[in-house]
Inverse folding.
């Protein structure tokens, strides 16, 4: 089976259009259409329904999809197996990192990698953890450093993890800062500065308030923890931030609730990691 045709098919599925698939593969749209058409001729049935405004997979396309991914993954694994014979740590390493990990953890790891293995070239994307999982499913990167969560499906393999304890905080001039041991009821009276509702952090805090039959007052959601820290420090509300981010601009609230999240590195199960990826994971284990 023509692997280029399979790659074109997967690009159309992942990007949702022929034009964006062409852009992602650095081809013209007619070239993508031709490759998909050749695949359809080979399997004897249309794989993509073009009759609607939004492209959809046909029944044949739905059945073909997991096999197509598996074939290209095995080709990827074969190439890595052959390249590993020379023992060199070189080539491109594509990474995704959440904004928090990118700011507070990644620099030390990449500094060591660049110093000891200068032949490795990096391709780096920053995004929230939920978007990172979607991009990993599209094979947009080899490793993703993200917040792990309970909804992560079995297509991902966790290669390393570490706890990230968090604290309830307010700005030093906030009314809550004067209460020795505030309760969740006290917090419910003020705006909460939290990440978007789809994040693991928001779900953890929302569950605490739901169990206590209290209502959250979320305000100006953003997934940039540095922005949340700034808004909290000037008194716009209370928040929950990693303890590693707490400084003199914030007051830690004595809330009797243990809140933590788990950070880690994930890759797609069934795809062999390259020598640069394995080397970076070794550095993470050493420095963390």
């Amino acid at each position: 089976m023509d692997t280029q045709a399979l790659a074109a098919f997967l690009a159309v599925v992942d990007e949702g259009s022929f034009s964006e698939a062409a852009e992602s593969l650095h081809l013209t749209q007619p070239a993508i259409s031709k490759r998909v058409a050749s695949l359809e001729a080979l399997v004897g049935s249309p794989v993509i329904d073009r009759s609607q405004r939004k492209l959809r997979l046909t029944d044949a396309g739905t059945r073909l999809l997991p096999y197509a991914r598996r074939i290209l993954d095995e080709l990827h694994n074969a190439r890595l197996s052959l390249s590993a014979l020379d023992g060199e740590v070189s080539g491109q390493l594509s990474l995704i990192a959440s904004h928090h990990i990118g700011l507070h953890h990644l620099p030390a790891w990449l500094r060591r990698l660049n110093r000891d293995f200068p032949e490795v070239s990096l391709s780096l994307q920053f995004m929230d953890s939920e978007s990172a999982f979607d991009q990993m499913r599209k094979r947009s990167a080899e490793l993703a450093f993200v917040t792990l969560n309970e909804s992560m499906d079995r297509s991902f393999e966790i290669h390393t993890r570490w706890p990230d304890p968090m604290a309830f905080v307010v700005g030093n001039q906030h009314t809550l800062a004067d209460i020795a041991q505030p309760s969740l009821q006290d917090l419910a009276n003020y705006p909460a500065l939290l990440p978007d509702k789809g994040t693991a952090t928001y779900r953890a805090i929302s569950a605490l308030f739901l169990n206590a039959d209290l209502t959250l007052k979320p305000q100006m959601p953003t997934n940039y923890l540095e922005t949340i820290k700034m808004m909290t420090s000037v008194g716009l509300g209370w928040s929950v931030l990693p303890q590693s981010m707490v400084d003199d601009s914030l007051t830690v609230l004595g809330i009797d609730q243990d809140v933590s999240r788990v950070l880690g590195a994930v890759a797609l199960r069934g795809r062999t990691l390259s020598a640069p990826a394995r080397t970076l994971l070794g550095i993470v284990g050493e420095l963390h």
